[in-house]
Amino acid sequence: MSDRFLPRPADKFTFGLWTVGNVGRDPFGAAVRPSMTPAEIVYFLGEVGAYGVNFHDNDLIPIDATAAKKAQILNDFKKALADTGLVVPMATTNLFYDPAFRDGAFTANDPKVRAYALQKTMNAMDLGVELGASTYVFWGGREGVETDASKNPLDAGKRFREALNFLCDYAIDQGYQLKFALEAKPNEPRGDIYLATTGAMLGFIETLDHPEMVGVNPEVAHETMAGLNFLHHVAQAWDRGKLFHIDLNDQSIGRYDQDFRFGAVNLKSAFFLVKFLEDVGYDGSRHFDAHAYRTSDYEDVKAFARGCMRTYLILKEKAAQFNADSEIQSLLAEILADDGSMDEFKGHYSPARATALKAYAFDRAALGQRGQPYERLDQLVVELLLGVR
Ligand code: GCO
Ligand code: MN
Ligand code: MN
């Protein structure tokens, strides 16, 4: 392995406890790997070179743990963090596994479930902050329906808004320096999950009492499952200053929720994503929300985790190569050429500008005759990725 692709803390590569700790259970089969304790997972992540570890409340502390058990787990976990130097940049709440959440959490029809979800989240926020988290993720896995007969989507939206407003105020009241990151997913485990895309989340955030505290946590697999262009959603989030976190993995369109190793399916999309994050200077966590194939043993899970980080770093190098490639750059310059003749029409509206633009005689036929060398450009990208440039 070439050293330049070894992860460093500055890369901010993080994994959830549930990712490398995934035991390979799926809807059709039982666990295939023995479970590791949270502390064991931290040592495992330290060994593969990760920077941080994230968790759901119940990845760390089982939902029915006694106070003594909780204290012991926390003690072991903190020791593992200290021994490895790993940090906890993000925490989240499990609001999907327990049967109590079978009809959702913040959007459930039963007000007792909604209140319990708030209580559970406040406790989980306390736990996350105690361990150093500065980003708090909300993934509403059960916040949806199988039938719209069961729930009015307007009510669901109001309930979700009320819950987030309550929790923002709780964070402020506690003096927590927490930012919230909302993670959209179109479906699975519910038939349809509310606020199904990152774009929907961005619109929703503006309706909150403290929109400045709330951003998004887009995930490659989630927009891809819906057949959408993930990069475009990330770009919109970045443009609004809302890219607070990102979940990296991979996914084939039209398949089950795969959570594959970053870059495992669509290297070209992964390349443009990494290039975007690096070009704009995204400096948050690069969080891998993925898990190894069910066929893997723990040696292979290490290969999975190292592979996620290594592919990111290779693609980062490819992005720098793209930016330095004279043929690519001169093609881009040609594509983006601007002779300045339209300068008088650029910028904000003014009555004079509108009048001048309406009076201008365009040569529409000439506009339509101009071709663009996008085939050449794309082939250069392909060759760069294939390592022949
Ligand atoms: C999924 C989601 C989850 C969330 C996690 C953190 O598809 O199951 O991506 O993995 O990211 O619950 O909120
Ligand atoms: Mn996911
Ligand atoms: Mn995720």
Report what the structure shows.
Helix 5 (111-130) runs parallel beside helix 6 (153-174). This protein folds into 2 domains: 9-323, Divalent-metal-dependent TIM barrel enzymes (TIM Barrel); 326-385. The longest helix has 27 residues, at 298-324. It has 15 helices and 10 strands. With 389 residues, it is of the alpha/beta class. The strands form 2 sheets. An 8-stranded parallel sheet has the order 8-6-4-3-2-1-10-9. The protein has helices at 17-20, 38-48, 57-60, 67-84, 111-130, 153-174, 198-205, 220-225, 230-239, 267-280, 298-324, 326-335, 351-359, 364-369, 374-385, and strands spanning 13-16, 52-56, 90-92, 135-139, 144-145, 179-183, 192-193, 214-216, 247-248, 286-288. The protein binds D-gluconic acid and manganese (II) ion (2 copies). D-gluconic acid is lined by residues 56, 92, 137, 139, 141, 183, 185, 219, 247, 257, 289.
Notable features of this structure?
single chain, 389 residues, alpha/beta, 2 domains, two-stranded antiparallel sheet, 15 helices, binds manganese (II) ion
* Total domain units: 2
Number of helices: 15
Question: Main sheet: which strands, in order across?
Answer: 8-6-4-3-2-1-10-9
Low-confidence stretches at least 5 residues in length (pLDDT < 50)? none
Oligomer: single chain
* CATH topology term of the largest domain: TIM Barrel
Measure the end-to-end span: 21 Å
Report strand %.
5-15%
CATH class category of the largest domain: Alpha Beta
Order of helices and strands: EHHEHHEHEEHEEHEHHEHEHHHHH
Return Rg in Å: 23 Å
